[in-house]
């Protein structure tokens, strides 16, 4: 278990640290940030997927649990270590970046909830299908598919919700003051809901894959 948790900490740390180091410098033409964030997730999934599953995201861990590919006694340690890594990464980015951030204004909580739900669902749906399905076992493109899903989501709705799609990222961006602490509930509710629904859809579509 210690190897899995260490792997989850490292992967989540570098994902959130990348967010903190690229988003404040992205400017209005926010092209580099989604590419860098999606790539960071991709390489960390490839690096740690064989050890811990490469979740780096409490919503993904919940989806994998509900899908039936994770034991119940692992879910709490996974979520705790992922959230801790997000917080440490956020504080490290603030210290290393040396800048003060103004939290983004979420104009419509309902739209932000919808955006976070949709792309967290998409992320977890992709993870379950490319990394846990018996029909795609042994494929070599799972990391690319997962990273690109986050990249697409960041391009599509980053300006609406902040584009976290991950409660651990939400913890980190709150520590970095990229989003207001008072708005974190949006990410927590929507992201966990997206992961749960993705698991239900996967189970419905794959009744013989348990």
Automatic annotation (TrEMBL):
Q: Which InterPro entries match?
A: Aquaporin-like, Aquaporin_transptr, MIP, MIP_CS
Record's bilayer topology term: Multi-pass membrane protein
Q: Can you provide one Gene Ontology molecular function annotated for this UniProt record?
A: channel activity
Q: One Pfam annotation, family name?
A: MIP
Mention any one GO cellular component term assigned to this protein in its UniProt record.
membrane
Q: Keywords on this record?
A: Membrane, Transmembrane, Transmembrane helix, Transport
Superkingdom of the source species: Bacteria
Q: What is its main location?
A: membrane
| Compartments where located | Membrane
Q: Does the keyword Membrane apply?
A: yes
The family classification in the record reads: Belongs to the MIP/aquaporin (TC 1.A.8) family.
Instruction: Tell me the protein's name.
Output: Major intrinsic protein
């Amino acid at each position: 278990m210690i190897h899995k948790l260490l792997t989850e900490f490292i992967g989540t740390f570098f994902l959130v640290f990348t967010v903190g180091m690229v988003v404040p410098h992205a400017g209005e033409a926010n092209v580099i940030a989604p590419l860098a964030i999606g790539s960071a997730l991709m390489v960390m999934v490839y690096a740690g997927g064989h050890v811990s599953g490469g979740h780096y995201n409490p919503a993904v861990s919940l989806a994998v649990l509900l899908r039936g590919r994770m034991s119940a006694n692992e879910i709490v340690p996974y979520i705790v270590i992922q959230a801790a890594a997000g917080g440490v990464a956020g504080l490290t980015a603030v210290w290393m970046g040396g800048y003060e951030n103004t939290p983004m204004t979420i104009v419509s909580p309902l739209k932000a909830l919808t955006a976070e739900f949709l792309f967290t669902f998409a992320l977890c749906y992709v993870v379950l299908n490319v990394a846990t399905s018996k029909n795609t076992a042994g494929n070599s493109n799972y990391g690319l598919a997962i990273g690109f899903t986050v990249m697409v989501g960041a391009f599509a709705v980053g300006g609406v919700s902040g584009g976290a799609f991950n409660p651990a990222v939400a913890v980190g961006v709150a520590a970095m003051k990229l989003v207001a602490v008072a708005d974190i509930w949006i990410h927590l509710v929507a992201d966990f809901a997206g992961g749960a629904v993705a698991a239900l859809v996967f189970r419905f579509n794959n009744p013989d894959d348990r």
